[in-house]
Amino acid sequence: MGKMGTGEMGSLKKRSINLAGHATSLALEPEFWAVLQAAASADKISIAGLIQRIDAGRGERPLASACRVFALRRAQAGEAGTV
To answer: Among residues 9, 15, 28, 31, which is most buried (max CB within 10 A)?
Structure first.
């Protein structure tokens, strides 16, 4: 089995993000941060800009969950440039 099958999960990495004038902390696994960074690069925006975009469209979903779903969809699309 792979690493996740052994019960070892990646540790969360926290970043501070400014959303609508308020500083907030966002904790995600490094794998999700990597997909978000690739998506931001593909969209030619900063990671903060991408997270602001995700935040604006997340509805009632928690921000961390919205970021993980966004990253999953981008990864499933096979590239960081569409979704």
So the answer is: 28
